[in-house]
Write a structure and sequence with these properties.
Chain lengths: ~300, ~325
Amino acid sequence: MFKSIKSKFNNDADEKSALMKPEKKPPLGKMFWISVGWVCLNIFLAITANLLPLKDPIAQDYNAISVGPSLHYWLGTDDIGRDILSRIIFGSRISIAVSFGAMLIAFGLGAPTAMLAALRRGRFDNILTTIMYSLLAFPAIIATISVLSFWVPRNLVKVIIVIGIASTPLVYRVIRTASLAVASRDFVTAAKVQGATDRRILIKEILPNIMPILLSFLLIGIASVVAIEGALAFLGLSISPPTPSWGNMINEARTVMSSNPWLVIFPSLALCLFILSLNFIGDRLRNYFDVAEVKI
Amino acid sequence: MSNELLVVKNLHTTFATAGGDLPAVDNVSFTLGRDETLGIVGESGSGKTVLARTIMGLQARRNASVTGSVTINGIEVIGTSEEHKRQIWGTEVSMIFQDPMTSLNPVMRIGHQVDETLRLRLGMSKADAKQRAIELLGLVGIPSPEERYDVFPAELSGGMRQRVVIAIALACSPKLVLADEPTTGLDVTIQAQILNLLDELKEKLKMSVVLITHDLGVVATRTSRIIVMYAGRIVEIGTTQDIFKDHRMPYTRALLDSAPKVSNPSHTRLVTIAGRPPNLLALENGCAFAPRCTYATEKCHNERPVLEATGNDGHMFACWNPLTTRRGAV
């Protein structure tokens, strides 16, 4: 008994010692990895679509018009005899390219300027923030629709550019707010008085500290662009048919929804699951990266 | 090169606020020699931290305007570009911040935070910098520094973190270190360790230290000279001996009296200074301390006293009605 008290005492002393053992982080969970797997599968299929033994997504089979799922056509065919599975996989290329491309533009433009504005403050910050916030006041979806209606002929690059620029103010606002909280902390000043340049402070001090927010917002942003592209395609403002995209597949299938519901269900399911997975990953990562600062 | 490492001349830092101009640092002049430790004491809001930041050349806020001159090792700081200041930051002058909980980057390993400066400013190779960083961590008393090199700040206690902060500040062997209340966030035993460490390092590395604190006990044994600040102005400046034993300004007396003493019997009420620090936006013409001063006369309320030298070399105070009696032992 005496011994146990002693060891208890020692344990207390250990806990008070200078080095604290880091706590174990909670696991990310099964759903997180399923979501990651699903997103990776989608990206893999989109990249290798040409190499896969898929049917031509544009070729029509007049012997199989509007057939349901079967061994030959796994997800069935549409009203002009095109393979749905193949169209969904080829269509994911558009969704993925647009969402990643647009977010690349939005973060490429928004994030560095936002971080710099948060660090420098002053006139640079005032002007840029005023501009960005004014743009935010204007509904991005309306801006996107009007620009895309006039900028013809539409192609992938134009869609990416328009959605990317339209999303920039939102990215700017989120990143600036996150960076402001970091930039006012003592360690940024401490780095500064050790002679670190602004560029170094941005990369070494601010970026790593906003990384969790940046990463989860990036994933959620990608998910919402997938949805936006779907909406634009549904309105006929994205890639022109016959090139498949999830949005225009749903749009085309709308007219035959009552006779052949598969045509709407499968692309919608692909769209939903992809967005859901991205959102889920983003959400879990944000929880996971919740950096402990004081653990005493 | 003069013998003075730091020369501060007629320094003013004024914040333009909605309520008018706020003089946070008001006409401050002093010098600091090489290998000297200077204490700056004063209540909260007396302008100590703003003074330290102004000396560093850090603009505390957007609305601050700074006039006067600060030279560190002969190099002017005030009114120069960031580019210029970057040349002296780290190598000539460095700063230790108040709160070790926030002055380390939480997502960077502590070793990297130390050697980053070394590589950046001294152009060391990766391996050399790591070697030196481990040496520095050992120097500031971190046990088994090789292992601690790779830990994150959250894995260290407050005292250990402050040691890391000191290691970073001293990495490029600056000639002057400004320590802005370096022990405020720490408990008393750790405070003493950190202060002794600073003292030791000062001797070892031949540097000057400006120790800013509100705790007179902290400066009593570690400084050669002390500045007492009140409402952004220097009210008394002198050797530690002068300030503790032969002070003339009633505020200094009041500050000393309000420190708890071990010799007090238990349950003694602490002596306090009546009233509260003045509103810097609505300063009267007279001495800023006059409303709280038991010795105040008509003149004190109407005319601002200037810093005057006493017979004692270097001992100056700003008071119309100075104390004449020497104070007993602390």
